Amino acid sequence: FNWFPVVLMGNVMLAFPAFLLGIDQTRLKEKLTSRKMDSKWGGRSESIDVTLNVEQACYTRDALAKALHTRLFDFLVEVQMPAIFQSCCLSVYNYTLIKTD
């Protein structure tokens, strides 16, 4: 992995994902390439933005993808579960339908 800070070569790669998520491209770029750290020392608190390195940005990207996949799968199961159980059973591990005649 590269330990240099992450620099995106423009917002072209983020345009479509930002559109699908319904958020601004710059906000998505900010969340994927940096994080906000809150520090308290004595009675003072300070907030700083830290640029992620490539490895950290990859973990952030993967965590976002996993969260989106989980929420989408939960939604689909919730919406389709009544219809599925009328005629077959859904195998959660490999997303296949098993007939239950």
Descriptive notes:
The chain crosses the membrane at residues 6-23. It comes from Paramormyrops kingsleyae. The protein has 101 residues and is an alpha+beta fold. It has a domain at 12-76. The protein contains three helices and four strands, in the order ααββαββ. It has helices spanning 12-21, 25-33, 54-87; strands spanning 34-41, 44-51, 88-91, 96-99. The strands form two sheets. The protein has a two-stranded antiparallel ribbon with strand order 1-2. A two-stranded antiparallel ribbon has the order 3-4. The chain is elongated, with a radius of gyration of 20 Å. The N and C termini lie far apart (51 Å). The relative contact order is 0.12.
Please give a quick description of this structure.
The chain is of the alpha+beta class and 101 residues long.
Helix fraction, binned, reads: 40-55%
Strand content is: 15-25%
Based on secondary structure, the structural category is: alpha+beta
* Average pLDDT score: 78
Shape: elongated
Q: What are the defining features of this structure?
A:
101 residues, alpha+beta, two-stranded antiparallel ribbon, elongated, Myosin motor domain-containing protein, motor protein, Myosin_head_motor_dom-like, myosin, membrane
Record the SSE blueprint.
Elements: H1 12-21, H2 25-33, E1 34-41, E2 44-51, H3 54-87, E3 88-91, E4 96-99
Antiparallel strand pairs: 1-2, 3-4
